[in-house]
Amino acid sequence: MKEKTRRYIVATDVGGTCTDTIVFAEGEPVHIGKALSTPPNFGEGVINSVRSCAATMGLSIEELFRQTQLFVHGSTVVDNTVLTRDGAVTGLVTTAGFEDTLLVTRGAYGRWAGLPEDEIKHPVMTERAAPLVPADRICGVAERMDYKGAVVRELDEAATEKALRHLVDKKGVEAIAVCFLWSVFNPAHERRVRDILRRVNPAVFVTLSSEIAPVPGEYERTSTTVINAYAGRITQSYLNGLQSLLSGAGYSGPVMIMQGYGGLLPAKEASERAVGLIECGPAAGVIGAKFLGEIMGDKDIIAADMGGTTFKVGVIQDGEIEYAREPMVDRFHYVAPKIEVVSIGAGGGSIVSLDPKTNTPLVGPRSAGARPGPVCYGQGGTEPTLTDVLLLIGYMDPNTFLGGSIKLDVENARRVFKSKIADPLGMPVEEAAFGIYRVACAQITDLIHEITVERGLDPRDFVLHAFGGTCGLLCGVFGQELSVRRVVVPYTASVNCAFGLVAADIVHEYSATKVLPAPTPAAEINAIYAPMIERAKRELASEGFAADRIQLNWSVDFRYSRQVHEVTTPVRAATPLDEAGVKRLMDDFEALYERKYGRGSAYRDAGMEMTSFRLTARGLMARPSIEKEKLGGAAPDGARMGRRKVFVDAANGMAEAEIYDFTKLAPGNVMRGPAVIHTPITTIVLQARQTGRMDAYRNIVIEFAG
Amino acid sequence: MDPITFSIIRHRLFRVVDEAVITLKHVSGSAITNEGHDLMVSLYRADGSLLMGGVGFLHHLTSAAEACKAIIRRFKGQINEGDVYLLNDPYTAALHTSDIYLVAPIHHEGRLVAWSACFVHVYDIGAMNPGGFSPDSQDIYTEGISSPGLKLVDRGELRQDVLDTLLNMVRNPEMVTLDIRSMIACNNVAADRMLALIRKYGYPTVDEACATLIEQSEKLLRARLAELPDGQWQSRQYMDVKGETAKVCLTMTKKDDTLTFDFTGSSPQSRYALNCTRWASLGGLFAPLFPLLCYDITWNEGVIRPITMIAPEGSIVNCTRPAPVSVATVGAIQSVNNAACATIGKMLAASEKYRKEATTVWHANHFAIFMFGRNQRGGQSIGILTETFAGAGGARTFADGVDVGGEIPNPISRMANVETMESIFPLRYLFRRRLTDSGGPGRYRGGLGMEIAITPHDAPDGGLHYVVSGKGAKYSMSEGLGGGYPGAPNRYVWVHNDETGERNADPSFALSLEDMPGRTEDISWGVFPLMGKDALYVAWNGGGGFGDPLERDPEQVQVDVESRFVTREAARSVYGVVTDAGGIVDLAATKRLRAEMRGARMERRAAE
Predict the structure, then answer these.
(1) Which of A310, A642, B401, B587 has the fewest CB atoms within 10 Å, counting from its CB?
(2) Model pTM?
(3) Which domains, ranges and CATH numbers included, belong to chain A?
């Protein structure tokens, strides 16, 4: 089926600043391309990025596409639509008496959720975000299901039609979200609303809560349904537009779209589930880390990504990825399976300041962004940033930044930093700068510690993967402070999200919500799974997967009675289940619960319940193996660029350190800290008593002595 | 001290508290802890003074400090590494018996270096009514277990006999066990992280950073107070219970860099359980003070030093044993919260620099209804209607209050979904929505409260019972500011529908209280049944308004009317805004009406 000539997989990830491309083929090195993102017409940046990658291969984009079997894509279209409030005029139909569910956001929850702690402690200055659907486009209609899904009151169809006509004709809505109480257990009324809408106006885009987010909890479900309706059309037209751009450039194969849960969906299917695309880029980053970990034999990974404005971190434990509990886009909650990626405002552009009253140094949360950017960029920046600090302590080279394309202004950075930070602190410039660097590293240490503790994990069991333009400059310090096993700065560190796209499989997620006591007879559980399995097999077969390329994984959400925490427990026993398998599943839940919530938290006496039955159906993609190179000698002599003064530590201050050119390093080379390694896109700093080794995949592996 | 190291240690102390809170919520797993965020974790110095207050129910920060100090006094010479102490006696330090403190010493190389303390509202405390609030308790003896200090864990070993004794006296010992375990785990995490910090930087450095942090907070608050005008501001709160009215009177005096809160003039202690003890009053005034005056200052002992409280002994804000106090947290303490918020707001509004920080009173009146009985699966359930955490924001000097925006003393609370409540209890909600005309009128309107109605559904015993300790039905408690009106009062209505005769009518699909055909009975205090086809209707207060409602932008009033936040009637009679049949403002008529209303005010004033 796979032609020899069509050997490439092209993956393109659209980020806020750059659009990254990776091209993979069996037996070839990885090819990397980059171009600026082009809002609002992101498709253009995608083509530019692919073209730049093709150029490094000595091909035109048409020649590359002619030999391409698969195009994989990650996009921020949905995130952007919500952030810029650029979606459809949307209406909401809900159960009469509960019209305010979306607007009151479970009380204060929508006022404080997503805010940093300093804003939470200042409630007088906080507001709830304006809703995507205002009150005058929310219609309640008489109907009611109970907690079992039993009809308590029939849908008033005449009132429904009237409400829909009001929304469409009077309010001019282009999309309608439908969310009724308990529709999770009986979607009949929601479906009936869609039928009536098709009669009223078939052109209106519609999303039903029972289809987009079939989980109990009406506020989050309503919010999800509204986001999907709001961003639905734009997502469809973006993906359609992309496909025509691609075919214009000569590509006619399948297009797969990354989802926030780290799997791919065919473009057509993805266009119907806009919420699935939210934060799919960072999710791809975690998938990339997981893939790299599999190659290197690591199953426990902290994946940290630090660029110009944000620091993002995801956790992989025992090869499993953690899903977010209460995901948000902008300040809106939604429910969809999504890889947990926690972020804080810390990046190269983070502004360094002193608290005016206490003189205590602060890094962030404000950022100088891309414009005016750090002082040293010479674009009008007047506030010192972390990047300026990195320059002042010698970690960045003013002459080789971005391959020498921008010369950094050290003198101006020094002057500004001296007057705004060092002098008020009463410290010499380099010492103060190194102090600020320590503060930034400590804040990241604290964040990673907190999110690992939240999952009941110990960072000492993990390998840290450091991605993004700024991470390599700090990871040696916070990695050592966290006592991780080692730090890996991957060869693909600057295009990690695109790398993750190549590593992903086609994944369909199915679930059925039903509360059952545990244990429940195995036959009853198997009966819940039977229709989901049939559907999964049918859908994957239609996407071209043979039976041996289909993998089905069961998992069940458990909780203790009267407790609020639910734990998704993978089924490890043979499926369909027998009674022993159910027992094993219950034991696994208890073990997981204790691991996650701490010793003494599991409490069988309270009784156990199963609340949701999930099926993950995976169509396994053919994945090219990455070329492993032969390890050579340890001496990195060919890559030495000379020596430069860098801040070594408090005792030694600025001292000479060895500088290396990453592009001239060979696998097997070992560098000893203090040292700096410059790559075309980023910089890696080895602290004193650390060693960096280039492995067979050209990753830099940092280890700590003693 | 070196500012870099100080900055790092300060950041880490915040995270120590955060991580302990996460542990507490995880292990407890209960709805009141996780949804209502009815919890607190803080760090204390070796002498029990507050070092780092976490975001939780803030009136506990100072009380838990007193709990540490009480343990230090009581167990002098017997405090060992690995001990954990339990304290919940309101006459020693706690707010009421169901908010149990677990305090633990943190030792470094054999030396006591700090304390951690936490609380959750436990599932049950063995009082006369389930859940912790006993509105009809006569004295502290009927309010369940109450300990002035108990060694629960001795050098790392749980004293099972002690725990079993406690569990033997509560309903649902399984749930209480989890609450206790969560607090032990929480203290363990705090100690582990604190010790890691000390190991990394050395005890002298951490100790110096802690001392500096406290001095810094004191300096910053004093500097802020010095910038504010000197003066006296007053607030008076009325609480109605069964026809009796109790009042909390507060005079706040700001002089130079100090603040004095004087409760002289407050009612004598009540025979009802809404009293509070001295430590509770102190906590009650600090709860709004932290976020209103110290939003950018670390919450610790330094903030406490410039503040003095005068609370007459034997009064409702400093009751004497054995007066009942089980309803204190939503009774006198909340009135102290409100009064302090009001006086601080008045002071801030009097300063040009700090005017924007002023706020009227938010959510002035928790209704704290506890449901109990057999649920649809046959088990016994006790639990709060979490809507009590969905208060209304007060108006600001620059904007309306946030509708259903929460409360100041508990900055990150939330309510559960209807679908959650209906799966825990044999109940069905008829509606849950914002309450029209509840926000205090003003140039900036107070945020709206809500209204709900619930009826039994699939209840094996035909229904449930509930405990209600609902003052605030007669008098508004969410005070306005600068001429703004208070928010609407609460209302608790028992709708009877099981009676024979003409009145018997099914309320199952009523969408408002007016839709309910049965006899209605206003209630507020005690234990009541919710059976058969009866319904319980609860409406709760909006936030206070800021400024004269006659100065509100008429266009804004029109939007409020269109959105059903304000009725046409109130628009006219309170805001002086005239709208035509289509709801459009008649500006000329509005101008005339407002002039008339101002004139009438002057006449009334003259007549007085």
Answers:
(1) A642
(2) 0.93
(3) 8-81+236-277 (3.30.420.40), 84-235 (3.40.50), 283-504 (3.30.420.190), 506-619 (3.30.1490), 637-704 (no CATH)
